[in-house]
């Protein structure tokens, strides 16, 4: 192959689909992680001076603001600096420490240099940085997109709450429902898991090499270091885990990724159902100007948004499951399996976010075909067999009928057979039931046999 071929992104998330997932890069990329590491180092240094540790005094607001610019103004210069230094240190967190020390010298704060990374193990910085970046990615990027999908789905459910349609259980014609109610089921499911994800904990540890604060106490035995550490972590808006090995145990991550995977499963179910409704003709796809459905069949509009969502949700679920399986275990007090695994958090969320983007677009490109729904209902009058045999049972119980086996009676009439409106009308007219019950059944149609489906939409 030609050596002149330009370097290309290996992942489609960084190539073809970059525009849809770029926001995640601010948090879940290598640069995003390093910026958060700088933030933790800087805030820990400020926290130590606020405690007047080792004869220091609290920094004034100007000095604190200048220090915080190290991560607030973090950009390409810092990215390049860290890349060069890590090539020498072969240790990413140590390179971050050196960056902070270098910038302290530039700010004339050399006297604080030894408070940089004070008594920290790398995992104090990493667990806190990961908690910060994952929390921000979830709350600032992923959840808003999920909520946008839920909102779009809710709007469709409300719009089509009265649109009667034939239900299908086991793929066969079943008791009618409404399109709005069926979409509302997905809204209800997604709202529940969205609340769980929004309430997730994001935990960090800050207790030294093996979680015992040993070095801290060796340097200052009279300080309540556990309290100092917990105040520091909570100041960053995170939960504090006081009982750990060298690493934070990652249980909060496993819980979060399981919930995100659960949401993905519901969304996958939504994608396959909408795809099926399109296949049945229930939804028409709105043509996009200039788009091509098939390279050889000009008439086609393919449901690519929902197919793309399906595939990306499956990829995301696979990675999230691997994250959960790997992160829950660490050999003795620490091994490095979690380090490599956590670098794929952004990939998992990236494919999930891409799926959400496709679902949102897809839901905006479909239009309900009421005529198809009604024609389908009109071709399946046998679904009223449930209503008839249930009414007959009630009549028998009330003493208005002597029919001995209502279910068998309707089964003989309808099972495996197409029954039309006139057939059912003749059948009902001859039933041994009260006139009032007959009239209720004779006025019933598949399109009106939807129970409280429309009212149920209000529950979302």
Automatic annotation (TrEMBL):
It comes from the Bacteria. InterPro entries: Fumarase/histidase_N (IPR024083), Fumarate_lyase_CS (IPR020557), Fumarate_lyase_fam (IPR000362), Fumarate_lyase_N (IPR022761), L-Aspartase-like (IPR008948), PurB_bact (IPR047136), PurB_C (IPR013539). Residues 330-450 form the Adenylosuccinate lyase PurB C-terminal domain. Residues 16-309 form the Fumarate lyase N-terminal domain. GO terms for molecular function: N6-(1,2-dicarboxyethyl)AMP AMP-lyase (fumarate-forming) activity. It is an enzyme of class 4 (lyase). Keywords: Lyase, Purine biosynthesis. Pfam families: ASL_C, Lyase_1. Pathway: Purine metabolism; AMP biosynthesis via de novo pathway; AMP from IMP: step 2/2; Purine metabolism; IMP biosynthesis via de novo pathway; 5-amino-1-(5-phospho-D-ribosyl)imidazole-4-carboxamide from 5-amino-1-(5-phospho-D-ribosyl)imidazole-4-carboxylate: step 2/2. Its EC number is 4.3.2.2. One of its GO terms (biological process) is IMP biosynthetic process. PANTHER family: ADENYLOSUCCINATE LYASE (PTHR43411:SF1). Catalyzes two reactions in de novo purine nucleotide biosynthesis. Catalyzes the breakdown of 5-aminoimidazole- (N-succinylocarboxamide) ribotide (SAICAR or 2-[5-amino-1-(5-phospho-beta-D-ribosyl)imidazole-4-carboxamido]succinate) to 5-aminoimidazole-4-carboxamide ribotide (AICAR or 5-amino-1-(5-phospho-beta-D-ribosyl)imidazole-4-carboxamide) and fumarate, and of adenylosuccinate (ADS or N(6)-(1,2-dicarboxyethyl)-AMP) to adenosine monophosphate (AMP) and fumarate. This is Adenylosuccinate lyase. It comes from Microbacterium ginsengisoli. The lineage of its organism: Bacteria, Bacillati, Actinomycetota, Actinomycetes, Micrococcales.
């Amino acid at each position: 192959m030609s050596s002149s071929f330009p370097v290309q992104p290996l992942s489609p998330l960084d190539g073809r689909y970059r525009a849809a997932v770029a926001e995640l890069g601010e948090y879940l990329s290598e640069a995003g992680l390093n910026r958060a590491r700088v933030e933790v180092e800087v805030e820990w240094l400020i926290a130590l001076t606020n405690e007047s540790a080792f004869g220091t005094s609290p920094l004034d607001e100007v000095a604190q603001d200048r220090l915080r610019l190290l991560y607030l103004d973090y950009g390409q210069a810092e990215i390049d600096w860290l890349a060069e230094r890590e090539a020498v240190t072969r240790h990413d967190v140590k390179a971050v420490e050196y960056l902070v020390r270098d910038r302290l010298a530039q700010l004339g704060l050399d006297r604080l240099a030894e408070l940089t990374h004070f008594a920290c193990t790398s995992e104090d910085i990493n667990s806190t940085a990961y908690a910060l970046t994952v929390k921000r990615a979830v709350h600032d990027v992923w959840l808003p997109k999920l909520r946008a999908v839920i909102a779009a789905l809710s709007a469709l459910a409300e719009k089509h709450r009265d649109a009667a349609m034939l239900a299908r259980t086991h793929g066969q014609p079943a008791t009618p429902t409404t399109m709005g109610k069926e979409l509302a089921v997905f809204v209800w499911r997604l709202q529940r898991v969205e609340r769980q994800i929004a309430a997730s904990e994001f935990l960090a540890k800050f207790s030294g090499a093996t979680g015992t604060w040993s070095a801290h106490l060796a340097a200052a035995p009279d300080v309540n270091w556990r309290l100092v550490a917990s105040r520091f972590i909570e100041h960053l808006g995170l939960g504090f885990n006081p009982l750990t090995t060298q690493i934070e145990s990652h249980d909060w991550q496993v819980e979060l990724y399981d919930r995100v995977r659960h949401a993905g499963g519901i969304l996958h179910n939504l994608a396959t159902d909408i795809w099926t409704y399109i296949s049945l003709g229930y939804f028409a796809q709105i043509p996009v100007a200039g788009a091509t459905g098939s390279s050889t069949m000009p008439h086609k509009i393919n449901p690519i948004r929902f197919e793309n969502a399906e595939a990306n949700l499956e990829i995301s679920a696979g990675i999230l499951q691997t994250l959960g399986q790997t992160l829950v275990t660490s050999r003795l007090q620490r091994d490095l399996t979690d380090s490599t695994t956590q670098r794929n958090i952004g990939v998992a969320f990236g494919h999930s976010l891409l799926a959400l983007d496709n679902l949102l677009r897809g839901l905006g490109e479909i239009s309900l075909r009421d005529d198809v729904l009604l024609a389908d209902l009109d071709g399946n009058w046998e679904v009223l067999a449930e209503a008839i045999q249930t009414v007959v049972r009630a009549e028998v119980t009330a003493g208005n009928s002597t029919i001995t086996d209502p279910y068998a009676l309707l089964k003989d009439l309808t099972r495996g057979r197409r029954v039309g409106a006139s057939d059912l009308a003749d059948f009902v007219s001859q039933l041994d039931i009260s006139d009032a019950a007959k009239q209720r059944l004779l006025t019933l149609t598949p399109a009106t046999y939807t129970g409280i489906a429309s009212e149920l939409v209000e529950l979302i």
